[in-house]
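Lab meeting notes turned into a lecture example. A postdoc, R.K., suggested we walk through two folding results consecutively so the class can see how the record format repeats. The first protein's sequence and structure tokens come next.
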Amino acid sequence: MLKKLSLVFVLFLTACGWHFKNSELFPEELRTLSFESADQYSDMSRALRNEMLLTNINIVPKAANVANLRLNATESSSRVASVFKQAREAEKILSLTVKATVTVPNKGSYPIETSIHRTFFDDSRAALAKSEEKESIMRQMYEQASRQLLIKIAGLQKELANTK
């Protein structure tokens, strides 16, 4: 009975078009942003732009009265975490650090930063498959970093309220 009731509830929510309102988390000043990056076509820039569109943030050209999100730096690195008996690298820790700045007109600039870490098993005998897996992991890390940056932007609401 409970399974049928939950199925009916899920179908009802799906049929009526109900969905979470992610953009309500953002302060009014940050629901429309201009976006700047040194490389507009980098993987991080594309992931951040896509995430902004998914959360219903309007991206507009740079203007004096619109808040600005500037992607300052994206740094990726890898460290050896473990080795095989033959002294070859076995496991790596992939790290991604993203630094950005949100500038709100008449309220100031707010630097934000996020770091993502993942482990990657690197077997040199399957080099082609492992390079594709590493690229897939990096794409996922860019998406996760984008989500974390937007969560930190939403968290600026308290600071923006104090500067009025």
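The second example is placed directly after the first for contrast:
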Amino acid sequence: MLLRSTQLSKFELMIVWKIQVDEKGNIIPFLDVLNKIPLQGALADKFASDAPQGFRSLLHVIGIEASIETLINLISED
């Protein structure tokens, strides 16, 4: 899933969802967020390093749907 900001051109977040099935049939979901930030400097560097970890933390606290909804709300704020 690719999320783009309407306010910041070329700013994108990609949600990667993989499902791994082991030999015993156990299903292990893996979600992560990758970002594309056209900006440079301290703010861009901080966001690039904090966004994936923040997303993984949200997954554990509020779940998949709410985490994705939070990302959408963050990039679509006016």
